[in-house]
Amino acid sequence: MSLLRRNIPLLASVAVYAALYVGASLAYHHFCSLRVLINLFEENAPLGLTAVGMTFVILAGGIDLSVGSVMALCSIVIAVLIEQHGWHPLAALALALGLSTLLGTGMGCIIHYLQIAPFIVTLAGMFFARGLALIISVEPVPIRAAGHAWLGGLGIPLTGQLDIPITALVFLGALFVAAYVTVLTPIGRSVYALGGDEEAALLMGLRIGRTKVFVYTVSGFCSGLAGVLFTLYQSAGNPSAGVGMELDAIAAVVVGGTLLTGGVGGVCGTLIGVLIFGTIQTAIIFDGRLSSWWTRVAIGTLLLLFVLLQRALTSATGRRKAQHVSG
Amino acid sequence: MGVRVWAACLPAGSIAVVSDPLLQMRGIDKWFPGVHALNHVDFSVRPGEVHALIGGNGAGKSTLLKVLTGVLRADGGSITFEGTPLVCGSPAEAVRCGISTIYQEVNLVRTLSVAENLLLGRAPRAWYGLSWRRMRMRAVELLGGLGIDIDVSRPLGSYPVGVQQMVCVARAVDTDARLIVMDEPTSSLDARETRRFFALLEQLRARGLSVIFVTHFLDQVYRISDRITILRNGRQVGVFEAAALPRTHLVAHMLGRSPAEVEAAAGATAAASAVAPERPAAEHATTLGGATPVLSVHDLGRCGTLAPVSLAARAGEVLGFAGLLGSGRTELARLVFGADRADSGVFEVDGRRVKIKGPRRAILLGLAMAPEDRQADGLVQDLSVRENIVLALQAAGRRGAAGGRTGSENAGCGDAGGRGGGFGWGARARQRSLARRFVEQLGIVCADLDQPVRNLSGGNQQKVILARWLACRPRVLILDEPTRGIDVGAKAEIERLVRELCRAGLAVIFISAELDEVARLSDRVLVLRDRRAVGTLERSRISEEAIMAAIAGKGGQEPFQQP
Q1: What structural domains and CATH numbers belong to chain A?
Q2: Which terminus of chain B faces fewer neighbouring Cβ atoms within 10 Å, N or C?
Q3: In this predicted model, which residue has the larger pLDDT, B121 or A19?
């Protein structure tokens, strides 16, 4: 009973996703195919990765607005290093990942040690990374190196003509690792404790500082990885990529059942959130008649509904608590 | 005379083997800006004892405990724990040293499961990571050992505060604490929960753990503690064996009086209370008989919160709400004030029907409420005394004119209301004079008007809230537990203020968990049980016993059911 109740937001997300998928499959010919499903994962891998990082941050009660910009910065750094400086693709990827992780750690340290609101710090990080990306190159830089193309072409063959592409694999892999970390490691549980009640977590003797820096580091790394996937998928680096993506990521996390106030939720929900996002987008493309901006309207509506649902649930438990406390 | 046993001295005629103290704090000094919060305080705890630390507000209990648990650093003195000097810079470090703290408000993570709350930080591992199965088993075992049987995989927040508090203790026991500091752990527990909590304390004592127990309930001090250390104004007044210290002496030491004086006063009060019921009743019959109530409420109720209740508040009268914790006292007050939306009910002010849709409307109609939790709901902790006092005035600027019309001369508010709480320099000067007047009238002890409210003691904070509402010149003042968590002296002061306000023509609704207080102060008492009103006692019938009988039901034997 209580298990069911606790998971209502997640179950609601799953229900919405199932309804969307079944509805679209019935409405549009060929929607219900493996290829469409794989495309869904492939196209939304960058968003999915930033959302996974964002899940950590939101679970810990924070927010990271820099993810889209960091992704763009990484993509352009990779492109420029490979194309203009002749770096080996792997070295370029590694450097970009290191850079984004460092950015995340830096922001985490500022947030924790200087006690500045994450909203402001990551907003600054967002401008910083975007600006840096545009300084490196104003225009998108295509990547033509053979090594990079080979990397992007990797995949696990599924049927004769169908592969699970590397981008989808990396996304799923990251999701798996994130799920493992949040559920089965002490630091993962510290994230939940921190988001649930920072003061209490501190008094329980948990290492709050380390946990806080950790979540922003994870988010930085995930954004970097999203940048890597972006270059693999697009074969280019683009300094203007991912504008507004941080908000999409937040939306996906919340639609996936994670409380924006922290402490409750998880990465599995985020997967569902991202899939809902992607399914709506794909369905609208399939339809062909609708403006693609309808995606936003749909997501906006869903987001509102989910927040209302969470509100209803938390206030229900809150009232129960109040009854016990007050006289 | 109480046997005075100084720290580290041998207990007189002891039966037990005298052991070295577990904790020894010597000559602790702590300065805050302008305040000598701890003045050379000595404090020691023996192994396996429950040691009550008591004192009025501002006595230095919290500061002493904060120094002990590493939240604050002492300016002087030494701390020895288990024979070695204790140096810890944070509560987490203190936990590692074997000192755990249970705070007044539960300090665990409500969104996490009970099991995690117990074991987080040292959860059992398996080769693949945390082992949830073993974590649950450990948690069940741990709680079972303390006689607590609950589903450990549910979130902690889904349990009542009493259970949460016990989970806190279980966690402390499991972190291998040798000393558990409990800062008013029972303040939000009802009688049954408190009983269970004390049973738990007995178990801890039997296991040889030491407990420092801070509380404002003197009954509980005697029920559970072995020794008592009394602090007053930052000094240690004495260390006593609980069994050898008469209650009057304890109160005397807390108040800084001689025991004989207090005994005499207690006798006088008893004599006074014997005749008290007659006098006010007569007074009211002449002055107020048959007057229209300032505020009357009919069938006010809210589904799931409170069964419909009717009540009337008359000018110059105190209407008390009495009932156990959770009986619906606060809920009723909130409904009257419009803080919660009622399902049913009719309001009348001066006999005219009105609608109260929210606190703002209630304030405009001349109602004021000082909420129960002054930390969270009542005061803006970082604002100054002055700002806090004029806050409500700003919110209800329009009320000023109305206040003038009704012309209630309560507590000499004079010209305050008419000017509202406007902004700008002129207003600021008026705000200052207004605030200063209240500070003087109510006897608020603060360094100056711009001191943040955070730094005041509980009793003084409560007075600031009172001042704020009085500044709006209300006609009905609702006080929800104004004396909760404040010391005896401050309580008496609040009582005196309430009487004065009444005399000035205010209608007061007074809520308190302490029945003797309600009985002393009220002209009528509305008794609540299980979220419904069970009756109203008129002045001549009010006594602690009568209220208790009403709460207990007709037979007085009926066991209480918590909702």
Answers
A1: 34-312 (1.10.3470)
A2: N
A3: A19
